[in-house]
Amino acid sequence: MPELPEVEIAKRSLSNHILNKKILDVTIINPKLRYFLKKKDFTKIINKTVNAVERVSKYILLKFADQSVVLIHLGMTGRLYFKSKNSNNKDTSFYSKQSILKKHDHVLFKFKNFNLIYNDIRKFGFIKYYNFLDSKNISHLNGLGPEPLSKNFSKDYFLKKLKNKKAPIKNTLMDQRFVAGLGNIYVNEALFISKISPKKLSFKLNSKEITNLIHSIKKIIKKSIKMGGSTIKNYHNSEGRQGSYQAEFKIYGRQGQKCIRRACKGVIRRNMSSNRSFFFCPICQRI
Fold first, then answer.
1. pLDDT: which is higher, 7 or 91
2. Distance of alpha carbon 235 from the chain centroid
3. Which of 82, 110, 112, 172 could bond 202 through an S-S bridge, CB–CB 3.0 to 4.6 Å?
4. What string of DSSP letters covers 35-91?
């Protein structure tokens, strides 16, 4: 699933192409995404100009002058790509290993010189329209924790929230109510760099561990965005460039391989928790 850096890159790619441009028409090809698409909702954005493209956690928001909003979540395999008469497809998404299959196109937004198409193989993503009243209270955005690059994601915040939290720290970091936008890849990487076991109970983290963990998370997210995200399946952004942060992975997907730390003789292990894989070095990240 795309995580914060990949969704941020998709948001920036969209902004480069559709900001201050008018949506001339919307075609719902297949309304059966995670939430059923209502044609009457999307007719309301026809002939409206996209005034802003924003990201909150793993959501992309298209905003209009009348304060209405289109909320997009890419789910597991969702992608947004541009189609024009004079060029090849340009893909903003995280997943691009396979060629874009037209049978998985679900929504088409028509602009003057190109179409923006939402394509989703597994159909776990969604697109929702909110009028100016409903946009003030979007349920998907309620209760989200601070963004990891924000000042609110601080040591004081950690100390307050982790005081009585008995869940493993890996589960806590995956909880969008605790921090918005982090996912499996970057949580695994941050915990390894901080030498913290994914299985360590959250309330048992000491002051130094918390400081190191916050620093690691912020550093990883910033670097991943700078490098265009992580290409797990041939990701290209809308300018046709691949993300390259996967070359920086220290532990994710490296089960059975030796720990990269020179003085460590550990071998990376892979376990499951809450139906998600986690990777750790049993020596560097000993509880």
1. 7
2. 13
3. 172
4. SBPPHHHHGGGTTEEEEEEEEETTEEEEEETTS-EEEEE-TTTEEEEEEETTEEEEE
Helix axes 184-193, 207-226, angle to 10 degrees: 130
Q: Return left, alpha or beta for 166; rule: phi > 0 is left, psi -120 to 50 is alpha, else beta.
A: alpha
Q: What is the mean pLDDT of the chain?
A: 89
Contact 44, 133 (CB under 8 A): no
pTM of the predicted protein model: 0.88
Alpha carbon distance, N-terminus to C-terminus of the chain: 28
DSSP summary character for residue 202 = G
**How is the chain split into domains, by residue range?**
4-141, 155-236+248-280
> Which residues fall within 8 angstroms of residue 210, CB to CB, at 6 or more apart?
155, 158, 159, 162
On whether the CB atoms of residues 200 and 169 are closer than 8 A, the answer is: yes
Question: Which has the closest alpha carbon to 68: 155, 117, 129, 142?
Answer: 129
Q: Which residues are catalytic?
A: 2-3, 58, 276
Cβ-contact 5, 229 below 8 angstroms: yes
For 155-236+248-280, CATH gives 1.10.8.50
Instruction: Report the DSSP beta bridge partners of residue 108.
Output: 27, 117
Model pLDDT for residues 142-184, shown as the tens digit of each residue: 999 999 999 999 999 999 999 989 999 999 999 999 999 998 9
The C-alpha atoms of residue 126 and residue 266 are separated, in whole angstroms, by 42
* Assigned CATH class of 4-141: alpha beta
Surface-to-core class of residue 14, CB atoms within 10 Å of its CB (0-12 exposed, 13-18 middle, 19+ buried): buried
Taking the C-alpha atoms of residue 172 and residue 111, their distance in angstroms, rounded to an integer, is 42
DSSP readout, 243-283? P-GGGG-SSTT-TTSBPSSTT---B-EEEEETTEEEEE-TT
